[in-house]
Specification:
single chain, 332 residues, mainly alpha, three-stranded mixed beta sheet, 76% helix, disordered N terminus, disordered C terminus, UPF0283, cell inner membrane, transmembrane, membrane, DUF697
Length: 332
């Protein structure tokens, strides 16, 4: 896991109290427009899949189809729409690392808002809450306490949330044998992960960075759907593929596990990018540096996620591939 930063933090609000709202820049409008198009495309894919299943169920009975549509709408609201709503209505802060920067009155008001959020939640220990209460009237002391909390306790908790959702994606997409289902799974789990990170901190990234995250999530989902069609014979050398083919169950198991690990790795990357957008290190403000740092951290986290996934791997996974192997033997 990446080494924890111990540098002091500066907290800026995207829009401050009693100040005019700044117009979004051209860059922000560009990313938001692309993200909006991505959301429309995802909704079209989702609606198309729902209608397709509904038409099949209508052959059984029209009320079965109606019931499915109602359930699909409720699930879409609970798993997609409501988490997105929670993210968007959260206040937007940008936390950046600076050196020897005394907090202004405006920043001090922001510190107090963030402190109140932490005091109302159970993310930090009682000792840390007491430190916040003691420092609440001293801007510099409050800045120091917030730095300690966010660079240690909160960062570790966020990494745990990221790895937990990555494990969910890894297991779900490894078990699933349907590319479209993998797409929806990745989208839903990643949205839930971002929502949980935002709720944990009490603030969200800027609209520009949220738009970039939206594009990242959808791109990852498309990759998850495409991985379903990958054949190990196209990746491994012929001799290795033939040797693995002689071992019962190993090829289908390896193929699905490889898909799951890839999707889990991409999910970790999205989570780390989200954390970096919330806690932007001054040395990693460029998009290239953030992406590189997120990839390096995800490589360090994925072995832990794989180990935990193997420990909790459902027996149904092996039963499913046993049936697949029997079907292959019947065909030959």
């Amino acid at each position: 896991m990446a080494k924890e930063s111990k540098e002091p933090l500066m907290i800026e609000t995207e829009t401050e109290v009693k100040e005019p709202r700044q117009k979004p820049s051209g860059s922000t409008r560009f990313w938001v427009a692309i993200a909006f198009g991505v959301i429309i495309l995802f909704l079209l894919i989702l609606i198309s899949s729902i209608i397709d299943i509904g038409e099949r169920l209508a052959n059984i009975h029209e009320y079965v189809a109606y019931g499915f549509y109602v359930v699909a709408f409720l699930l879409t609201y609970l798993l997609v729409i409501n988490p997105v709503r929670i993210i968007l209505v959260s206040p937007a802060f940008s936390i950046e690392t600076v050196m020897d920067n005394k907090p202004t009155r405006r920043r001090y008001l922001t510190y107090k808002r963030v402190s109140k959020n932490l005091l109302d939640r159970d993310e930090i220990s009682q000792t840390e809450k007491e430190k916040l209460k003691e420092a609440i009237d001293d801007p510099e002391a409050l800045q120091k306490v917030l730095n300690e909390i966010y660079s240690s306790t909160m960062k570790k908790k966020m990494n745990k949330v990221i790895m937990r959702h990555a494990k969910t994606v890894l297991i779900s997409t490894a078990i699933s044998q349907n590319g479209r289902l993998d797409l929806f799974t990745v989208v839903v789990v990643n949205i839930r992960m971002i929502k949980e990170l935002v709720q944990m901190c009490g603030f969200r990234p800027s609209y520009k960075n949220l738009a970039k995250l939206t594009i990242n999530v959808f791109t990852t989902a498309l990759i998850a759907e495409g991985l379903e069609n990958i054949n190990l014979n196209d990746i491994l050398p012929t001799s290795t593929a033939n040797m693995l083919g002689e071992i019962p169950l190993i090829k289908p198991v390896m193929s699905s596990v490889a898909q799951g690990i890839t999707n889990g790795l991409l999910t970790i990357r999205i989570g780390v990018v989200t954390r970096k957008y919330l806690f932007a290190d001054s040395k990693e403000l460029s998009r290239k540096a953030i992406q590189k740092g997120a990839f390096m951290e995800s490589l360090k986290m994925i072995p832990i996620v794989v180990k935990d996934s193997i420990i909790h791997f459902p027996q149904k996974f092996f039963d499913m591939f046993k049936r697949n192997k029997e079907d292959e033997s019947t065909d030959f």
